[in-house]
Amino acid sequence: MITLDPRSATPPFEQLRVQIAEQVRRGSLAAGERLPTVRRLAEDLGIAPNTVARAYRELEADGLVETRGRNGTLVRAQGDAAAQQAQDAARAYAERVAKLGVTPAEALRYVTGALGAAAPTA
Fold first, then answer.
1. What residues make up the domain containing 91?
2. Is 42 inside any structural domain?
3. Pfam families from the xrefs (predicted)?
4. Looking at per-residue confidence, does 122 or 103 come out higher?
5. For the chain, how many structural domains are there in total?
6. CA angle at residue 113 from 109 to 119, to 5 degrees?
7. How confident is the model at residue 2 (pLDDT cuts 50, 70, 90)?
């Protein structure tokens, strides 16, 4: 959830940028997740679309999101190449099990089992 403080000395675009960046770093916004459209977020927050657009541009310059034209703005995988690939695989798995109607608890149980089976034996 994003909240802006109109009394803050920090400009709204920067408040927005910082909050989205923190959500990406914490993992509450996962790799591949689509951000709201500029207009939608501006409307939700009661700010000008240009304010949201500027925050999104700066997040893109920081490598945290990427804009894909009509496909929107998506969170980029973070970290080294292995971490990025793992995040992409996790996102693909989450999307697939959701389409299959598997609950999150079941999905976690399946992946925990698979990770246990893939662990090297001593």
1. 81-118
2. yes
3. GntR
4. 103
5. 2
6. 145
7. very high
